[in-house]
Structure formats: structure tokens, C-alpha cells
Design a protein that fits this description.
Low-confidence stretches: none
Helix content: over 70%
CATH superfamily: Domain of unknown function DUF1476
CATH architecture: Orthogonal Bundle
Radius of gyration: 17 Å
Number of helices: 4
Strand content: under 5%
CATH topology: Major Prion Protein
Order of helices and strands: HHHH
Structural class: mainly alpha
Largest sheet: none
């Protein structure tokens, strides 16, 4: 095998590992967002994990974060939580930063 092939395989492996880490970080973020939103909606602790799983599953609808935002926005609005779109997006960014730090170790 040539040096070029070795480098190519190493890059492919790194890409796959990085994608897996990012997927894990996003799932951790979504779980944290679910617990946060459940608290805002006044859900009992026994339902918090179930709701967090719903938020994780919402992220599977399409690429990007819009599906998670729509889930949170819709549920928070339905439960009469007075929170702005910017506050939700800020929380999403904060939780992703924390999740990446946990997953990547940086």
C-alpha cells in the first residue's frame, strides 16, 4: 500500500470518528435541552427523561438544528412558557458547547 493510500485511509478514519463524536455531542445537547425544557414546562422529574428522549428523536427529522428548535418552541408555547426564540437558541448553543467539551475533552 502506498503512502498516499495510508494517508487517505487515515483521513477517512478521522472523518468517521469526528462525525461519531459530533453525533454524540448533539445527542448530549438534546438530552440536556429536554431536561431544561421539561423543567420550564413544569413536568415532573419522572417525565423529564421521557421528554428528553422526545427531543433527541426530534433531531432525527432533518439535518441541522431547526427540527430541535421547532420541537422546543412548539412545546414551550403549548405549555404557556414565556420564553423568546433567542433564549431557546442561546440555550441550544450553550448546551452544545458544554456537550462538545465533555465529548471532545477540551
Amino acid at each position: 500500500m502506498s503512502t498516499f493510500d495510508d494517508r487517505s485511509n487515515a483521513q477517512e478514519t478521522k472523518f468517521v470518528l469526528d462525525a461519531a463524536k459530533e453525533f454524540k455531542a448533539e445527542a448530549k445537547r438534546n438530552k440536556a435541552l429536554g431536561h431544561w425544557a421539561a423543567g420550564l414546562m413544569g413536568k415532573p422529574e419522572s417525565e423529564s427523561d421521557k421528554y428528553a428522549l422526545e427531543v433527541i428523536m426530534a433531531d432525527m427529522e432533518e439535518a441541522g438544528d431547526d427540527d430541535v428548535f421547532r420541537k422546543l418552541r412548539g412545546d414551550l408555547t403549548a405549555s404557556n412558557c414565556a420564553i423568546t426564540d433567542d433564549a431557546i437558541r442561546d440555550r441550544m448553543a450553550m448546551e452544545l458547547k458544554a456537550a462538545r467539551k465533555d465529548v471532545y475533552g477540551t
